[in-house]
Amino acid sequence: MKKISPGKKTRFWRAFRRQWDLQLMVLPAIVVLILFSYLPMSGIIIAFKDFTFRKGIFGSDWVGLKHFQSIITDPFVHRALYNTVMLSLLRLAIVFPAPLIFALMLNEMRFPRLKRVYQTMSYLPYFVSWAIVCAMVPVWLAPNTGFVNSLLQFFGIIKEPVAFLSEPGYFYGLTIILELWKSIGFSAIIYLAAIAGIDQEQYEAAMIDGASKFQKMRYITIPSIRGTVSLLFILSISGILGGNFDVSYLLGNGGNISRSEILQTYNYHMGIIQGRFSYATMVGLMLGVVALAFLLIGNAVIKKLTKTSGLF
Amino acid sequence: MMKTSTSRTRKIAILLACLLLAMAAAGCAGESSPSADSNVPAADPGTDNTAGGGGTTQDPAPATGSTITLSGYEFNTEPVTLTAVVDWPQSFGNWGDDSVTRWITDTVGVTIDITWATTTTGEELNLLLAGGEQLPDFIVTGGGGATAQTLFREQYVAALDELAAQYFPGFTDLLPDKMYEAFQEDDGHLYRTADWFADYDKMMQMRDEGFYVTDGGNQQFLLNRPIYEELGSPSVNTLDEFRAYLNAAKEAHPEIGYPLMMANVAWGDGQDTVNFIYRLFGGQDWLYPNAAGSIELCLRDPRYKSALQYLNGLYNDGLIKDDNFAMAQETFDSTLAGSNLIAFSGSDFNWFGKVPGGETLDGPCLPIMPPNDVSINREDIKLKSLLSGVGGGTATFISADAVNAARAIEYIAFRYTDEAQTAERYGIQGEAWEYDTDGKQIVWTQAYNDIVATDGWLEMSKLYGCNNGTHSWFITNAICKLESGKADYPVRALSQSDAVNQTFCQNERIFDLTKVIKNDDIQMKYEQLMMLVEESVVSCIRAGSESDFNAAYDSFVSTAESLGLADIEAYFTESYQKWESLGMGG
Amino acid sequence: MMKTTAARRNPNRIRQRRGEAVFEVIVFIVLTLIILFLVYPFYNCLILAFNDGQDALNPGIYLYPRMFSMENILKAVQIEGMASAAFMSVTRTIIGTVLSILVCAMFGYAVSKPGLKLRSLYMVIAMIPMFFSGGMIPSFLNIRNLGLYDNFLVYILPTLFSTFYAIIFLATYREVPPSLEESAILDGANQFTIFYRIIMPISKPTIAAISVFTAVGHWNSWMDTMLYTGKKTINTLAYMFSRLIFQTQYLQSLMESSDNEIGMKLYGATSTSIMVGAMVIATLPIAIIYPFFQKHFAKGVMIGSIKG
Question: What's the ipTM?
């Protein structure tokens, strides 16, 4: 008994061929993905092997879940995981909304030329690489010679210089501030682009009706970019186990390590540097699975909450 | 819209045009450095390599007429280019820029084409191995690192003793005494050479001949001289006196930023202050044999606890600052440069080298005899010394299918001759140094001193080649100490008492060997332990009260035990006994 | 006149206007403070770059270079091969960005159409690599096997597609009303024409934004040079500067090591100063070009070919 009628299949192909131009548009991306993302993905199997250079990826011995077990039972992993999650939550709560607020404020600014200047300047920190930022941070935060401590003491906020980098307690705040500094302009651009795309007629109509600034913002601007906001939100969720490797790696030290060690740096220390590529790959695999899970959950949540179509 | 995109395109076009013009003006744009591509096997193996490829020839290739005799052995002088890959960034000049590399090329015909890494984390070397291409003649990487283990275990490298037997038997004689035993692998072969390996007997012999023998940087306590003299140069011979002095000086000079500045608090290194103070309480090293002959790590030793308590006391007196545990390099440098401290603990030249006038005898840094605990006889202090240290920070390997294996092994042997060692450390006679009136010891020339004074030591090294990283990281050996007592930093010997250190140095050697780990599981536990140590030491020192301290310390010990301290100690014990049986101890 | 009418109709309007004025002032102040916070460290680096290295070890440099010196910049620029590296960086940034935008935008556009066959499959294919990757060694072997080692194309091809940016395009295009297309389709245009003539101009702000991100990515990218080239002919500026920084840091660490006698003075340039000099040169060009792109963020561009 034929379940699939030949008709369905032919219909599919006919429709497919009719869309030849759209399908062609998708093609370059797919080719690139296959060549550069999927081909090397076969290397993930080394997570289940004891990889050695000589035997190569396919020749190395199979060890199944040995690395998985050693990761789970490792006491330092739990702490690294805790830090990673805490930082990600803080990031979602602070670093995510900040550019939106910033963009809205910038949008409301009166002087258009100054507004452009501000927009340009806000984006400047994004150009600087983390390596340089993290090299400068100890200089800026140095207790006796850095300008941060000098400023805080000058304004009487603190009496004695504070060693920000040696205390675990400051590390979360430090990372968040640094990320804000670096990325607020970056994300704001996306929001500003979205705002720029809003139909001007709506604003004109609102003005005729006597709407105030706040009302315009509340009833036109924000709803219009709701799609963009939820989109970026979903994409950020998928980074929940991402963490900021550069900051933790470059600013981590004996004093603050109880807070600065995240999964990525731990993986780097134990895995890559020691040549334990199988171990490192297994950590990456585990992280990927969990991140994917979070993405799917987040997407479903957003769909329910905002009645937008989410990502899928 | 069309207009804007055209103007944008125009802008880009103008930019490109300008760049092209600039390039053309700059001349040789696009021309890379003249050195040959080191990943390609030497294009014509026949021409330069007198031993030919393969390695099946029986006799060492007869030199086509030209040899030179150094330290009693004959070396080939045919020009040859050997290739090398080094696991860290280039920091000096290129081969041929300085006098010593030129001398090497002139003397034995060797030029080394080096591929330097970009980072210190080893990605490029790992990829080179993974990629399966022909490896260069030399592979230079950190001796204790994972890559070194990989090289040997996966047979990427040749056995040096076998190469020596086949091509240059002189290698075995020229190799510093005991290096073979210290670095042979379990299969009995030697795969790597080590740098900074002290031939203890030779050094003692030279000392007996009247040479000034010292090691590479003393762990010292140094005082800020003006402040010390201002306070009447009080006695600081015991730990209690030292603490009292620091407090008094701090009161007299509240503007000083760091009363006690520690170079490093991380465990295990030569600059480790905690380790140093532990020794001043009578400890030996962070591992030591207990009464039963098994190895224990120091953290359960009551003397180690005392050391931590002492530092904790200093911290609560306000003598140690918080950011000492996580100091940026610049802050460290500027603190020392400005003498913004009362006392310093660490490697002496860290301070000497930064402060104006530091190297003079009456300069601002005053070395003192390390203040010991009153219960310890000064003669019993066991200070770490490099004299017999196993060093081995850098490992040089010859790859298994090296194209120029014969010349490579010969080159290493050449580097161990007295002539090459002298050149490596001191440069060329007449240019950088001259013999003293006794005809044995050396003094620096005026030109040398002038360059160092005006442009700095680094520039001198790039010119004269002394300890120049382009060539010296291969084979640096601590056997040669030809300096007279007038050499720089004569103050160093202050803390070393010969009778004590003679025996103890040999203990250092066996400790260094025992510390080497070749087992993956133990390696992992050890690293976790190191991470624990790093934070626990800090939290112990920073404890606010005695109960906090005890809590921190107890937690330190119990966590260490749960991490597998016993396993690590058992592993070390086995290792220690093996080295003892090989006669590496004191 | 309209406004006055409204004001008469709504007596609260005056209060509103005053409230708005206050709001604007607050916004202005807050924004200015934020900008200062964002820009000052950058400015601090700039003046440190022009300050003598030894002198910079001492604190107190806040608003202008205390001891002016071009040495850091000069040291950074005099490296051999700088000109060709600059050329390489510019070329790769321009070509890479343009092509990348095309690929990502086309994908985003096509997938934004609900009627696209195999649409979910494409989405899944695009999303999975965001979470999983083979790692350094498999990627390296892959590049080698594809013949891209030491090849200029290794800068362009692997990064042609980014799921993140493609999704942003997708979101933008989803908002586009279908009416725009319909008249073009009736005229017999295929999707490529529609894309080029209608869709791309509409999404100019997004394109401009993503262009900047992609360009910066290309400009700053150095690890691919390190891993995938022999580093002799196709160096990039970013790589040369990273290498300079690592070399200086390494030398600095040698000076601190206790196991050798090389703890001696450096004159003039120190590690931070060189780094900062390199940073200034490396980021200044793109920071200067960026404002030109900003023009395209201007409000709403609509090709009025359809009456609303």
Answer: 0.79
